[in-house]
From TrEMBL:
Major site of localization recorded for this protein: other
Ranges where the Multidrug resistance protein MdtA-like barrel-sandwich hybrid domain occurs: 55-184
Record-annotated CusB-like beta-barrel domain positions: 198-270
Protein name from the UniProt record: Efflux RND transporter periplasmic adaptor subunit
SUPFAM superfamilies: HlyD-like secretion proteins
Family annotation (InterPro entries): Beta-barrel_RND_2 (IPR058792), MdtA-like_BSH (IPR058625), MdtA-like_C (IPR058627), RND_pump_MFP (IPR006143)
Signal peptide start-end: none
Domain Multidrug resistance protein MdtA-like C-terminal permuted SH3: 279-335
Keywords, sorted A to Z: Coiled coil, Transport
Tagged with keyword Cell inner membrane: no
Organism: Dyella caseinilytica
Coiled coil: 89-116
UniProt family annotation: Belongs to the membrane fusion protein (MFP) (TC 8.A.1) family.
């Protein structure tokens, strides 16, 4: 009976359960280029973007292009009803013909009176009156000629023509609409030069100067890196966003750069900067008032809260100067849901774009 009790007691004991590892998003960190002054999101624009409009008013009778169409220089884009301008042109032409006829008659009269004056057949006063009539007729002809040329221009202006190769970016008027002179009909972007627009917060604008070098990458073109430079820095902040518009010019634009593509620009520092470790802002944890990160120990896959020294805060990342080494695995997300000594199973972010670059 004693042996049976011992056997039953032995069967009732359970083997100790292995500690369950908590899955966390953790990736190895990489050394950051010390020459990078900051990274900013942006989008691709044309070097020259402008509205297209008619120089004269009228009713829009035809539209030949739509947003997204690529057009060539000299191509007709839209047409106004030409009835009024055609009538003005016909009236100006008739006025010019009448002025030329009056000038011809005044010229003949002047020639006759000058010949008669030499023979003392007419008075000095009559000759002066004839010459005055000729001068008035000549000025009237010149004025009518200018009016005719103006009417010709007005007639040509009823056709909206592309003055450069480019693309239609927007449409602001429909057929049948009555337009005033200068009212926008299309948005237009020139072909050729491409730029990247950045919205830089006021805390970072002091480190950006005209001519500063930059590198531009695009999610849509993962295998391309474009060299660029700062062409323009806005002198004042936007009233709503309180950010400064910075324009980067792509040094060697490519046809693959499509308008509106999202971009990521890394500005090069004007002065040498010590290298550091770049981590996403979501990986930063605060131990009291001191910044820290969760590091996965490689020996046993447990977490260690390690203090770090911040070199620079960015829009989406933080540059660490001390406390981390390249290759160490750091928790990138969910830093407030883990604890020191906890055993974890590192996994990659569910979305590739969330991984540090």
């Amino acid at each position: 009976m004693a042996v049976s009790v011992l056997l039953l007691a032995g069967c009732g004991r359970k083997a100790p359960e292995a500690e369950t590892a908590t899955p966390v998003i953790a990736l190895p960190v990489q050394a950051a280029d010390g020459a990078t002054a900051g990274r900013f999101p942006g989008d691709v624009h044309a070097r020259y973007e402008m509205p297209l409009s008619f120089r004269v008013g009228g009713q829009l009778s035809a539209r030949y292009v739509n947003p997204g169409d690529v057009v060539k220089k000299g191509q007709a884009l839209a047409q106004l009803d030409p009835a009024d301008t055609n009538n003005q042109l016909a009236a100006a032409k008739a006025a010019l013909e009448a002025a030329e006829h009056r000038l011809l008659f005044a010229t003949q009269q002047r020639d006759r009176d000058e010949a008669q004056f030499k023979q003392n057949l007419i008075s000095q006063l009559q000759l002066q009156q004839t010459q005055d009539t000729y001068a008035s007729s000549l000025a009237g002809r010149d004025q009518a000629k200018q009016q005719y040329e103006l009417a010709q221009n007005q007639s040509r202006y009823t056709t909206l023509v592309a003055d450069h190769d480019g693309a239609i970016t927007s449409r602001q008027a429909d057929v049948g609409q009555v337009l005033t002179a200068g009212q926008e009909v299309f948005g237009f972007a020139w072909s050729g030069e491409r730029e990247v627009y950045l919205d830089v917060p006021e805390s970072r604008i002091d480190g950006i100067t005209v001519g500063q070098q930059a590198k531009v990458t695009l999610p849509a073109l993962p295998n391309h890196v474009f060299a660029a430079h700062v062409r323009e820095v806005a002198p004042a902040a936007d009233a709503q966003s309180r950010t400064y518009l910075v324009k980067l010019t792509i040094d060697q634009p490519s046809d693959a750069l499509q308008l509106g593509m999202t971009a990521d620009a890394s500005l090069q520092a004007n002065k040498p900067v010590a290298p550091g470790i770049d981590i996403p802002a979501t990986a930063l944890f605060h131990q009291g008032e001191h910044p820290a990160v969760w590091v996965v120990r490689p020996a046993d896959a447990t977490l260690e809260l390690r203090p770090v020294t911040i070199m620079r805060y960015g829009e989406r990342d933080v540059l660490i100067s001390d406390g981390l080494k390249a290759g160490e695995r750091v928790v990138m997300q969910g830093v407030h849901t883990v604890s020191a000594g906890e055993k974890v199973a590192p996994i990659a972010p569910p979305h590739p774009e969330d991984a540090p670059q």
